[in-house]
Amino acid sequence: MGFEVNEYDECTFNKMVDGTQFTIPFHVDDLKLSHLKQQRVDEIIDALNAIFGKQKKMSASYGKIHEYLGMTIDWSEPGMVKFTMYNYLEDILAEAPDDMDGTDVTPATVYLFQVDLDSPLLDDTLADLFHQLTARFLHAAKRARPDIQVAVSFLCKRVNAPNEGDYKKLWRLVRYVRATIHIPLVLGWDESGSIVWSIDASFAVHMNMKSHTGYCMTMGRGAAISGSTTQTITTRSSTEAELVGLDDGTGFIEWTSRFCKAQIKDYPENHPLKQLGCKNLVMQDNTSTIKMAKGGRRTCGKRTRSIDIRYFYITERINDGLIMMSYCPTKAMVSDYLSKPTQGSLFRLHRNAIMGITSEEYDRYELEYAAAKRRYREGMYGTPVESA
């Protein structure tokens, strides 16, 4: 068929057809076919059926709204895509016990990372429920609800021996999701071509004195990539923790840039997308970390000489022009949200930035929740068809 694989993702294929790129990403045995002309999409479906649909034709769906892996993916508004998991999250809330009724304004308190070692372990029934709900929230957190990643990251570490204190933290998360079930993840591109990363670390916040990294990436609206993870090594200062966090994120930065460039390599030079991935801006709120990242080991002092050389990999990426470092005040660091359980107005500000919504849109989505569910349920999904 003449498609060429993206060398940085073997599950993404491209081909220029009628002067416009035809893209097919795979996930297991599912394909998403995208081209400007419907006729070209139909031709590829027919060609695939001729090869793989001899016993049973492949099913296909067309339209702006699709259901996939528990998500509703909505392209109906120009310039953006919305991800929701209304039904999936409602199922979780239906499984939650009655003592988890009610709502909360944040998914975790400031004491999230503290473990009460004297708290009694849960009995087998509650421990199984704890594990099941945590696993289901993890699925949502890595798809349409990145705003719950900090709480889920901690709860995942407690599934082997959860205690009553951990149960209270799950209780808090359930109540937050109930209050915010209407929030979509909205992604959009600002046409600047810049990929902006925010990477932050909270120093020695875990019981074993390990730090916690939070990172997110945006192309203009919403966090297309994000994460909240415990660092694998113990650091000796906040500066070192920030540098380790940068190293944690550098692999994503490099891969994303190279993937984007491979995707647009056949576009005309004057096409707006041609600039995508050419500028990778990394926001950082620790000036000492910025100095070390730019200068490498020659900037190390007595407290930092023990830092392994691999954490200066980012120095090479800065020197070769792949990455640009920029100072950002802590209150403006969106990834601060993903490095610890924030509260109050700062929580709402960063949560909305990650989800790609404004405070006004938050209120609107809440009011329109029932109508949105009804609209999706009444057949505005991509119309299922069977190729002839």
Structure report:
With 388 residues, the chain is of the alpha+beta class. The protein folds into 3 domains: 1-62, no CATH class; 84-183 and 357-376, no CATH class; 192-339, Ribonuclease H-like superfamily/Ribonuclease H (Nucleotidyltransferase, domain 5), CATH 3.30.420. Helix content is 37%, strand content 21%. It contains 12 helices and 16 strands. It has helices at residues 38-52, 86-95, 124-141, 149-156, 164-179, 238-263, 287-295, 313-319, 336-339, 344-355, 359-367, 369-377; strands spanning 4-6, 9-17, 20-27, 30-31, 59-62, 65-68, 71-74, 80-84, 185-189, 194-202, 212-218, 220-221, 225-230, 279-284, 323-327, 383-386. Strands 6-7-8-9-12 form a 5-stranded antiparallel sheet. It is globular, with a radius of gyration of 23 Å. The two termini are 19 Å apart. The mean pLDDT is 92. This is Reverse transcriptase Ty1/copia-type domain-containing protein. It comes from Pseudo-nitzschia australis.
Key features of this structure:
3 domains, globular, five-stranded mixed β-sheet, Nucleotidyltransferase, domain 5, five-stranded antiparallel β-sheet, 388 residues, Reverse transcriptase Ty1/copia-type domain-containing protein, single chain
